[in-house]
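Dear colleague,

Following up on yesterday's call, I've attached the two folding results inline so they're easy to grep. Please treat them as preliminary; we haven't cross-checked anything against experimental data yet. The first protein's sequence and structure tokens come first.
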Amino acid sequence: MDMKRYLSMMVYCLGALNLAAQHAGPLKPGDWVPDDLVSRHMVNYGADSMHLVDFEGKAILLDFGTTYCPPCITSLVKLDALQKEFPNNLRVFMVTHESKEKVTAFLQNNMTVKGVQVPVIAQDTLLHDLFRHITLPHIVWIGKDRKVKALTGHHYVDKENISALIEGEPMDWPVKWDFPYDYSKAMIAFNGENFNTVMRPEAWQYSIVTNHIEGVVWRQKTTVDSAAKQIRVSAFNIPLLKMYLSLFGYIWEHNFQPAQVVLQDVQDPAPFFYDEHLGPKAVWERSYTYCYEMTFPMGLDKEERNRRIIEQLNWHFGLKVDLKKLKRPCWVMVVSDRDRLMRRTLFSTEAGHSIKGLLNAVNKIPHHAPMINELNLEESVEKSIRLELTTGLFDSFEALKKVLEPQGISLEVQVREVESLWIEPAK
């Protein structure tokens, strides 16, 4: 290594150490971002380093993510469009720990991000230390005055909020704190001031239900505690429907859809379904996600543990929740003209919705009649079909029926037995 390159590296390292010394802890909303901040290993930028002082008079968004995180990729595309909409007042950077070579190859080869012009700070450690997080994407909002305005997920990134950042308006949003949490340890323990190690019983059981715990990443976990001779089942920051369905053996919005949920005499659906029209999902999650932890004897099987957890949750929330097969009016798809339908295969020049995509789109609508596929086609044939549809049709039976009929599908209302999650207030 020549002396010039060695001295350059020493200057950079000393600068980074000096910056780290001044800001030993992570930055939070209201803190100043240091003006002497320098980031190296730039991609999509035109230079190898970025100096914060170069963007005086502009708001800055730091988008922490990776090339293998689907929400991060979606966020990057969205931020690229916003950067182009506010070229004189906003600067957006993606920040990743991944290598410069990997990021470069990703931007060149991934069709989703083709043409994205957002610069990427690769191989980063400095910004990750200043803005610590666990879940991705992690968005840092920095005002023109170089103060941290907010720490959020990607749900807050839209034109209105970008305008608020640029104009210096207050950003009173929930702070995205991601705290390291040891999920292997119990949520509660005996009070050491009242119980010494001799006084504590060898075996004991408990159940606890709480509201949202700020900063803890959602998780469900079963722990075998051999020393205490018990099994501990825990859930952290989980929505009610996802919580109940996991106990019945289903995965919410994977093999069990919103149209399968029946709210009987429930006045307020907000605790069960997120409505994007009412604000960011992070705000809804703070109000309507919950935690529980319950312990059971070692010999109790999973089915009985889950039954007891459901019973405890029902008592806590004042609900009666059950999984049952119900006869319900459904939207049923049947073949009306096979020849017409076969023209909708991938060999057709027209692109569109798959059969599965249509089913998912309709069945994801809360309070909707379930949609049933009775086309009775071979799997390979069904996968090749593409239907010509517009998104506004999915909640209108007559409109959808009218569009499907010329494509060889008849849509009918028929009663079918449907696996349903029945929810009603406890009597």
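Below is the second protein, in the same order (sequence, then structure):
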Amino acid sequence: MKFSLRDILYASPAFAFAIPTFPVMIFLPALYAEDFGLTVGKVGFFLFIAKIIDIFTDPLVGWINDKKILSRKILLLIGSFISGVSLYKLFLIREIPYEEYLLVWIGLLYLGWTMFQIPYLSIGYDLEKSYYYRTKLSATRETFVLIGLFSSLCIPMILQIDNLGLAEYLVKISMISGFVGVFFLCFFVEEKDTRNPTIILKTSFANLSSNIKLIKILIIWFINSLANVFPMILFAFYITYVLGGDDYDRQKTLFFYFLFAIIGVPFWTHLSKKTDKTIAWSISLILSAFIFIFVIFLNPGDFFIFIIISCITGLCLGADLVIPPSIQADMTDLHKQKYNEEISGILFSLITGINKLSFALGSFFVFGILELLGFSTDLTVGKNSQNFIIFCYAIVPVILKVIAFTMLRKFKFSEKELIEIQNKIN
């Protein structure tokens, strides 16, 4: 898979925004529970509230994007600044001044990410119209995302530092690379603006609710997103309290996981070209479910087998990252042709909102139940807590992946249909 210069310049900011994603999504709950003394129940509650607020900001930012209230590049510049300050406040500290500190700054970080991500995806939608090359553009962007995640893992493995020390390096790298990436995007990538500032939010959401094909793909997206959330938020706890590992074991496993995700990006992109986007994504879903079920049978110390499982599921992650955004771009054209309105910002806010809703529900459920079971990082983990971690980490995602696979097999949208739709638009 060859990368064009335009696609590279467009994708470059994704590297910087991906670097802190890994610590925020995986290590932040453990960091504030283990090092800053918050109970897992409070951590889960604060993350849930912040995500719920964040979910409601997505359509608002999408509406601002589509109404041309601000330039998309100005909007993402503001989001970049808020994100940088919030990362500093979350990680470059040695103690928290008050319990709600996590809620305040994680909420602002989510807002900054939203203000960057929605106009960023909207710009990408206007850059490419081809059925296959949309997937290729998405693959380029997600490759930079995975390289950012991969880099955030290489640093602690090379320097042998703990999570608090890791945070300082990652925040600084994210800020510097973010400045460079956003500069390239703003000054060297043309903004092909097709937005219509006359849209009415109420009318747009009425049209969205009647777009059955769009609703179907969003439901599949939500189920699969939820399937990915459970292992994500429980990964650190599973490694520590089920397999008996430490920080190094976490880092080593994730190193191979994201390495194979990078390998998976060109593989799934090529497969989607040879077959179909939905077929390629379906294969990845059922393969991931089949392989991950073996996690149930692992015993303490089975890290070699766990790494093999992580390599294969990491390969499947490549499809989850590349194909759904490309399908959503196609759905944006479908909506534009059907309802004569260009609302790429609102449409992409739906998928970012779904990702956040799944994370909020997963966090609230998992940490809430662990609190009821008496789980504490300061105490010996009981059998009930351990079984619950295994159930949510391994069994629940497999069930959800199978459901998503079954629904996706019934979803049809070909390149021929997209060409016909685009011809009608033009």
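For the second protein, one point worth flagging: The chain has a mean pLDDT of 86.

Best wishes,
A.L.
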